[in-house]
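Before relying on records like the one below, remember that each one covers exactly one chain. Contacts with other chains, cofactors or solvent are not represented anywhere in the record.
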Amino acid sequence: MGNFLKTQNVFSDGEIAPEFYSINNVHGVASLENVDVLQSGGLKRRRGLKKIKNTVNGAILVPFVINESEKYLLVIYDTSIDVYCNDTKVSSIISPWLASDLSKLQYAQRFNSIFFVHPNYIPKILTKTSSGFSLTDFVFYINSDISVNMPFTRFDDTDNITIGISPSSIDNNHAIFTASADLWNDNWVNTRLLANNKQWVIESVQDARVATVFTNGGYTLPDGVLKEWYEAAFNPRRGWPMSVSFHQNRLIFGGTPSLPNNIWMSKIGMYNNFDVGTGLDDEAIFTTLLSSQHHQICTIVSSDALQILTSVGEWAISNSPLTPSNVNIKQHTSVGSFIDKYLPPQQIEGATVFVSKSGHDIRELDLDTLNDKYNATDLCVFSKHLINKPVSLAYNKSCHQLFVVTDDGNMAVLNKYINTDIAAWGKYTTDGLFKCVAVVDDTTYVIVKRGNTSYLEKFDDECLDDAGQYDFSYKISGFPMIINGHVPKKIRVRKISLRVMNTKTLFVNNHRMEIPNYAYDENHDGYSGDLYMNLFGTQFDTMKPLWTISSNEQLPATILSVTMDGWYLM
């Protein structure tokens, strides 16, 4: 038998999964619900939620911050976009995307415009102007001869097909394209082709081998059939870009359903011009991820390099400046990104944080100490039980918190402070289901489904409950004790001491801690100091936490340290 006096004043590892209960010197707890980990390592009851407005089930949230005076939140749902400013709806816009499309909708902002892409739709641009908001089709730059500066490619399924060109009886701008094998159907109508040094648009299809096409300015017949002809990389039949970003003043498109591992980069400063020209430094760039594995681009991130996150690995183009003759693309890691739903990677202290392919890891893509190679560090090694199929995530840099909404309606929250070596996961719950999260400036917004109704809400320092009517409790359970690397047979806690700050409610093992009455005054911040409780009894199941701090009262609580005094038997 021996005595122990154990103090825990840093909770930097957050909630730890049960499989790690035999590890000594872990600065975590067995349960951390509705509690934040502070930069100092202490614990604080989370903020409450303020209700803003009812919204539509299945909506997603997208931040749209133009400048300090124009900060918007987009609520996107079935064929509509609602625009909020200062928690008030200021505009409503018709959109083409159905509710079933929203999981694949990606976006990138540049100044006062957001570019949206989806594999089944022409890219769209939402622009804020002096007169309001407009949603328009993305249009490639049109030359004087009405050709367009868009990318063209040869698809594998047409590689062996040649085309013969013959005059049309319509006029000199029309021709007949005759394929060497069955090719054309009605899905080709309006598709743009590049052949015989001209761009052509298919106007009609006569049969599987014969189509009528149009070009501008007349043409010269080739000497024979064309072996080299190209199809627009983006079109209704082949699909549209699946990911989008901006990097070094270029618009970047990544992958289509037919070309999942291709990347297209616009001319510098001309986001609708994808003409590769003669390869001058400012002209467009086209590249492909070359690998023995099938890579589908999941998303593209502009960071210190252009990062390409695929279904099976993480790539980067590190050249600066990036030019057609200077594209050093390399695969760095082989984790893979979550592919079933677009979960926008978050920038945290210079690193890119993303959801892994498994849906149970949150990874941090960051350069090694030599700034030569990226590593994909697992941020939730101790807490994978909290990461249950993420459906939405966002980072609030003002409070250093990464919010991850999971499929079960809870929210895993990472409190991350690099300067104090804190990376602590916990769990948020509410009376309902969290469905989506986004951060606009310093404010964290969520969609919560309560009953059959969804609500737009935000975390607010002034709120002690949720949405003005829903109580929530918090719980912190201590980590099972390991003594000198061994598990004791039984433990008796004689006294527990808590150092608290600005606290008005506290229960330890369901027993109320006595707090001075003056601390309950409405205008008082709460009690700061030490609290004590004696006689906890003997515990034989040492896998169970020795203490649990909790409360279901809607009052503030901050715990700076927990000290146990007792004896044990090995």
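The CA atoms of residues 239 and 257 lie 6 Å apart.
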